[in-house]
Amino acid sequence: MLRNKNLIPLSHQHQRALALCVRIDRASPISDADLDAWRSEIAQHFRNEIKIHFAAEEQVLFPAAQRFEELIPLIEELTADHAWLRDRFTEAESRGMSAADIAAFAERLSSHIRKEERQLFERLQKLLSETALAVLGSELAAALKDAEQACILPTGATRPRAAK
Question: Which pTM was predicted?
Fold first, then answer.
């Protein structure tokens, strides 16, 4: 199903986060020499965009979805994912993530995004009217206004490597 224009700003942010996950996967196993660069980039993604993204979902999107009984278990799962991911971002900021932690983080973030895109967004587009989606889009735009709109450029250590 095509993404409704009112959810596209969240989907664009999802694409940027998925790109980070793909780069982590391709770099794995991450060497000890590159750990600090990856931790720094993960923390930067959180500060610049994901922190605001999570808040917009929790304050605008999730309450709209919780009006539908069938979506409540999914929202509870996504909220738990947010808590787990926030803890990982804090670990990245404090330089506490190991290479294995970074790989687990990328896997969980990727899975979380796919749940939102394939389950939550798809169901909301079927359950909400165009008018309700437009209102939701306006509220999301306001909630996301302070997020960075640019991709974070990888450093030498986090730049994708050529296929072997």
Answer: 0.89
